[in-house]
């Protein structure tokens, strides 16, 4: 008889560490991507394009890895994704050095594919835990990004100076953080993610049949019509859209107001600290208070943060606004991901969760493309207000789900 508790802890630790390594590289390059785009293209409206390309890579990767995970396993899929990201980081760095915009975008697309693979690790952690522990399992993996996401931006200035010392452009330096982090993440996952979580999840479903919905496995088109799945997907998709828009443009906004690169890095660090550092709290809240309550809270915090960011030009108000933007995303993301995991049979998990992240990243890519144009035309304030309006959608849907759930529970009582 396997010691499932020990195996679950080991899998969660490996995913926690790989999240941190991947996040360090991902957030380091995200800090300067908009600046590189404006520098290489010479057009302010192109500021949102790198972010859109990355999340487009995440979208395509999510679909690919979602199906690969069911066929070749979670371990092989996630580690292969990190290797692809290593290649992408190398291409992006060389493109910055040679001042070539198209190869730069190609490299970012591959980095996005790598990020989508490690992001699916939150569902991998959930499937090796029972329902009463899923929220905390997901939050532990998301928490793994804290150190990497906070320290990643702080490495921007030192690696930029190192790049200048080596004779390369300053903005090429941060891509070395991504290169190194993804190499280490790939090695960790390939060596440490044993036994494969796919097999453990299937065994748990057989041993504890009450831990998953007892119904026949359905096609993806049928699954995505379930009310609980709709609420979960809308919550994470819209939270991602709202979070990514100010995050991707703030660097250009601060540059326009003559903030140094170190101040820009500090704001992004505060944002990513909000995104990940409170994951244990959001996971506990999700398991204790319920999924919909935490989605409602997250949506409300997202709205407040966008309203705070809209008129801000100084360092301190932007620090606060971006911190709360990350915190609101965390609440909605953890609770929405947990709600989605609740709805699925073992055979439905990988394809549905991959499809969820496909939608998430396609929506985020589109919103970032639009955000660059809106920023160029209307400015940072208009862009932030549009993001606040978008956050109303998951708020309203989660309130509906909460009311509908109470009505169903009342109807079942004799």
Short description:
This protein has helices at 4-41, 49-72, 74-98, 101-119, 121-127, 131-143, 145-154, 156-165, 174-192, 197-207, 220-223, 227-256, 261-276, 279-289, 291-309, 315-342, 346-378, 380-390, 392-412. By secondary structure, the protein is an all-alpha fold.
Write the layout of secondary structure elements.
Layout: H1 4-41, H2 49-72, H3 74-98, H4 101-119, H5 121-127, H6 131-143, H7 145-154, H8 156-165, H9 174-192, H10 197-207, H11 220-223, H12 227-256, H13 261-276, H14 279-289, H15 291-309, H16 315-342, H17 346-378, H18 380-390, H19 392-412
Helix pairs in contact: 1-4, 1-6, 1-7, 1-9, 1-12, 2-3, 2-4, 2-17, 3-4, 3-9, 5-6, 6-14, 6-16, 7-13, 12-13, 12-15, 12-16, 12-17, 12-18, 12-19, 13-16, 14-15, 14-16, 15-16, 15-18, 15-19, 17-18
Descriptors:
single chain; 414 residues; mainly alpha; Growth Hormone, Chain: A; 19 helices; 84% helix
């Amino acid at each position: 008889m396997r010691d499932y508790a020990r195996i679950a802890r080991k899998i969660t630790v490996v995913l926690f560490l790989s999240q941190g390594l991947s996040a360090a590289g991902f957030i380091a390059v995200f800090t300067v991507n908009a600046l590189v785009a404006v520098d290489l293209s010479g057009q302010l409206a192109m500021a949102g394009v790198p972010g859109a390309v990355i999340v487009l890579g995440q979208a395509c990767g999510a679909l690919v890895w979602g199906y690969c995970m069911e066929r070749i396993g979670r371990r092989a899929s996630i580690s292969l994704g990190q290797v692809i990201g290593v290649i992408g980081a190398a291409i992006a760095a060389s493109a910055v050095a040679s001042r070539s915009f198209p190869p730069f975008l190609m490299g970012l697309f591959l980095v996005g594919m790598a990020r989508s693979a490690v992001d699916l690790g939150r569902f991998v952690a959930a499937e090796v835990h029972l329902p009463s522990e899923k929220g905390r399992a997901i939050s532990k993996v998301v928490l793994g990004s804290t150190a990497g996401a906070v320290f990643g931006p702080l490495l921007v200035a030192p690696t930029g100076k190192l790049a200048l010392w080596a004779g390369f452009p300053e903005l090429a330096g941060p891509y070395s953080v991504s290169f190194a982090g993804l190499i280490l993440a790939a090695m960790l996952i390939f060596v440490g993610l044993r036994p494969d979580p796919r097999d453990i999840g299937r065994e748990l479903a057989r041993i504890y049949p009450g831990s998953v919905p007892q119904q026949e496995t359905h096609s993806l088109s049928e699954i995505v019509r379930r009310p609980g799945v709709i609420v979960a997907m809308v919550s994470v998709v819209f939270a991602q859209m709202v979070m990514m828009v100010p995050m991707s443009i703030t660097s250009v906004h601060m540059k326009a107001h003559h903030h140094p690169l170190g101040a820009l890095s500090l704001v992004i660090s505060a944002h990513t600290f909000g995104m990940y550092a409170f994951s244990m709290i959001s996971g506990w809240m999700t398991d204790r208070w319920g999924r919909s309550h935490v989605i409602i809270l997250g949506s409300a915090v997202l709205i407040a943060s966008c309203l705070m960011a809209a008129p801000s030009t100084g360092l301190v108000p932007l620090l606060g606004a971006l911190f709360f933007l990350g915190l609101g995303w965390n609440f909605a993301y953890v609770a929405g991901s947990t709600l989605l995991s609740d709805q699925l049979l073992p055979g439905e998990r990988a394809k549905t969760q991959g499809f969820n992240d496909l939608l998430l990243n396609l929506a985020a890519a589109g919103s970032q493309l639009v955000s660059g144009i809106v920023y160029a035309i209307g400015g940072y304030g208009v862009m932030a207000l549009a993001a606040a309006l978008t956050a109303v959608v998951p708020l309203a849907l989660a309130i509906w789900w909460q009311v509908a759930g109470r009505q169903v529970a009342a109807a079942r009582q004799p």
